[in-house]
Design a protein that fits this description.
436 residues, mainly alpha, MetI-like fold, 2 domains, three-stranded antiparallel beta sheet, 3 strands, 66% helix
């Protein structure tokens, strides 16, 4: 009999071991699937970031041409021997200075059509740079100086290797005669690539070589400032009321909670339509203003902050509340001195993530006119402006090849801002967790 029991126990042990073996095998497969999924995600993310960064690199350099500019009285159309006011220097003729310099370098170019092509080697903004140079230093008048001027976007793209000279002439924007001129300029050391400071310091432009993102950055700053000023205090106050003061099992409170959760899932473009109908059509606020953009993003961000704040408040142990009330603190003192400080890491994390989401939004801002071309740098909350995501959208729709690099570079800048905002959320969370 005991032999049968031993044999039965051995069989049971084998069954258990086989079952455990299968279970451990499933766990190993599940772990392998997880590692494979994470590795694949990181691979795709790395490929995406590498592709964007690779395409963005040409935007951070700019091509310049060295020209011998003749600042003679005749070329500037100024009277010789008199002192000039700033207004007279501003209205002087600078348009032909670069053209005449190019004609001197290439005297063999006599055809009108070829002259026009040669003139277009230089950016249309070069004349304004020369004007500013003369206004800053009037002693240039009557002299001939070697000046580095901004090259046109096609020349810039060719210098950066974005245009293949081995392609047939019909398939590239740079023609054969232009290639000869470029080779001549390179042989004379008249072509140079420099760091493109203007990309970070200038506003938008129809010409790729003159376009920058400083206007979009300032517009984003003003818009985010309005969003933060409104959404953070209102969102935290609403969450505190719903968690600590609102009556339970009340149909009105339940309706508010349901609507807050629903608003967090509403497509962002709906908030843009709401802002267009209320802020612009009803209240008459100006289109494309950071004030209106901030008000629209405030409506979109508010549900996210409320939900994150409520979750952070719920995570505070009830014993903290009971202890505070037990030593005689009022309910308001209990909330402000104990609950909110303990919940602050979660509140700040949720708020910054909500702000980062708002920073990356473009659809609601398109509805209120922030898609308009704005060349001037905004100086206040009511000035016409755009934001980084909308600037990316505008450039991505432009036909010029040079805007591809600008679009990718603007995406890189936007990703850096989003990374810094998330890093700030982590730092603040760690700081407050250490304090408490």
């Amino acid at each position: 009999m005991w032999l049968e029991d031993i044999e039965s126990n051995m069989n049971n042990t084998k069954i258990v071991q086989a079952s455990l073996k299968k279970r451990y095998a499933k766990e190993r497969r599940f772990k392998a699937y997880g590692i494979f999924s994470i590795s694949l995600s990181l691979l795709f993310l790395s490929f995406l970031l590498f592709d964007i960064t690779h395409k963005a690199m040409p935007a951070f350099t700019q091509t310049y041409l060295k020209l011998d500019i003749d600042f003679s009285y005749k070329n500037l159309k100024l009277k010789e021997g008199s002192r000039y006011s700033e207004k007279e220097l501003f209205s002087a003729s600078y348009r032909q200075l670069t053209s005449k310099s190019l004609y001197e370098i290439f005297p063999e170019v006599t055809n009108r059509k070829d002259k026009k092509v040669l003139r277009n080697f230089v950016s249309s903004g070069a004349q304004y740079n020369l004007r500013d140079l003369v206004i800053e230093n009037p002693s240039l008048i009557g002299t001939k100086k070697s000046i580095w001027v901004l090259a046109d976007d096609d020349i810039d793209s060719f210098a950066k290797g974005l245009i293949d000279r081995n392609l047939p002439e019909s398939e590239r924007r740079i023609k054969d005669n232009q290639l000869v001129w470029i080779d001549t300029l390179e042989a004379d050391n008249r072509i140079e690539k420099r760091l493109n400071i203007g990309f970070l310091t200038q506003g938008d432009s129809r010409e790729p070589e003159q376009a920058g993102i400083w206007g979009a950055i300032k517009g984003s700053f003003f818009t985010m400032l309005i969003t933060l000023i409104l959404s953070f205090p209102i969102g935290v106050a609403a969450a505190v009321y719903l968690e600590e003061f609102a009556p339970k099992n009340n149909w009105f409170v339940d309706l508010i909670e349901v609507n807050i959760n629903n608003l967090a899932a509403v497509p962002s473009v709906v908030f843009g339509i709401l802002g267009l109908a209320v802020y612009i059509n009803l209240f008459g606020l100006p289109r494309s203003a950071p004030l209106v953009g901030g008000l629209v993003l405030f409506l979109m961000t508010l549900p996210t902050i409320i939900i994150a704040t409520r979750a952070a408040i719920k995570s505070v142990p009830p014993s903290i509340r009971e202890a505070a009330l037990g030593v005689g603190a009022s309910k308001m003192q209990m909330i402000s001195h104990h609950v909110l400080p303990l919940a602050m890491p979660g509140i700040l994390t949720g708020s910054i993530i909500g702000m980062a989401q708002a920073l990356g939004e473009s659809a609601p801002l398109l509805m209120i006119g922030m898609v308009a071309f704005v060349a001037d740098i905004p100086q206040g909350f009511m000035d016409p402006s755009t934001v980084l995501p909308v600037q990316i959208f505008i450039w991505s729709d432009s036909p010029e090849r040079a805007f591809i690099a600008l679009t990718s570079a603007a995406i890189v800048v936007l990703l850096i801002f989003l990374f810094l905002m998330n890093l700030l959320a982590i730092i603040l969370r760690k700081k407050f967790e250490t304090r408490w």
